[in-house]
Each structure stands twice: as C-alpha cells, then as structure tokens.
C-alpha cells in the first residue's frame, strides 16, 4: 500500500472544463458537490483506501519561530496557500495506477449546472524514508 495526497486547488492549477468559481454556484450545486465528495470518501472508507481529508477555510496565515523569548512571526513575503489550496484527501492504495484512477474520479465532482468540474487535482505520493539497516 502507498499513501497519496490529493490536493484540490482554488487556483494555480490549469483551468477546469467547467470553470465556474464556487461563489457563483447555487446552494443546490454546492450541496451536490459536497455530497459527491462525502460519498466518494465513504466508498473509500469501505474499501480501506481512505485515510483522511477535509476542506479548508479560506482564512490562514504563515507562522515561524523567531528566536528564543520572541513571539512567533506571522505572515511574510510568501505565496498564500490559503488562496490556492481548497482541500485535501489522503488515500492508501495498492498502486500509482489506482491513485490516478481515484483522482480522475474525484475530478468529476459536480459543479455549476450539475455538470462535472473536470478539475485538475494534484496527486503526490508520500515520501517514505528507506529502512535503517543494522548489522
């Protein structure tokens, strides 16, 4: 089994086929989209391939350590992922091919007009450190 991160983007990825921003969707269209996402996750829970996932609020900030006894520094001249990343899902699958298959299915979530979005999802494998070899 291999873990993959599926990232949904607000922007930054190539345009989706049904490229209507969510703030222009009707309440019913938003409900249908969320239902699709929840049903997808439930099906993967049943197959044992779902690890976790959630939508992200648009708010957020960068934080870093600024030295002993000093308060953390927030924000800065960085790319704002809060403007880019809409949500995530972690899957644990048998192969890259299965991860691609599921990402393609998730890309078909409905959007404006109830039509599939065909959005681009970022698919990233988790980095696994090689085992420590001891004699």
UniProtKB/TrEMBL annotation:
Name of the featured protein: YciI family protein
UniProt xrefs under PANTHER family: BLL7171 PROTEIN (PTHR35174:SF3), BLL7171 PROTEIN-RELATED (PTHR35174)
Family per record: Belongs to the YciI family.
Any one Pfam family match given in the protein's UniProt record, by short name: YCII
Domain YCII-related span(s) in chain numbering: 24-109
Signal sequence segment: none
Organism the protein comes from: Actinoplanes subglobosus
Lineage top rank: taxon: Bacteria
InterPro entries registered for this protein in UniProt: Dimeric_a/b-barrel (IPR011008), YCII (IPR005545)
